[in-house]
Design the sequence.
């Protein structure tokens, strides 16, 4: 699924690019590693903006790019744009192990399977 915006292709592209960057499998394991030591710290030069900060910034840009047009079904659009790459990245991280992926996501395995089917993720 791709973002559908009312006459705001720049906002759509920007939001899609940010979501792809935020859910890059090479970045996700660092953020979701459950076996890291609680005392382990990230060097100052490796600290990044939290996911919520990126989403907020991209939504602000999206609203600016609407040029007066009303957004449609914004909640579902953002949820789907974040959820699918999140599921894909976590499955990559767990090497396809759905039980581990479900645990990492805080979902039961049945819910994860339903979401995988919804997004046609194998």
Sequence:
């Amino acid at each position: 699924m791709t973002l559908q915006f009312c006459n705001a292709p720049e906002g759509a592209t920007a939001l899609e690019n940010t979501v792809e960057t935020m859910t890059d499998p090479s970045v996700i394991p660092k953020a979701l590693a459950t076996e890291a030591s609680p005392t382990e710290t990230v060097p100052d030069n490796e600290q990044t903006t939290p996911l919520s900060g990126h989403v907020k910034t991209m939504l602000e840009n999206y609203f600016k790019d609407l040029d007066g047009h009303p957004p449609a079904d914004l909640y579902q659009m953002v949820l789907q744009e974040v959820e699918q790459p999140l599921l894909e990245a976590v499955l990559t991280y767990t090497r396809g192990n759905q039980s581990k992926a479900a645990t990492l996501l805080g979902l039961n395995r049945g819910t994860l399977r339903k979401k995988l089917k919804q997004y046609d993720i194998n």
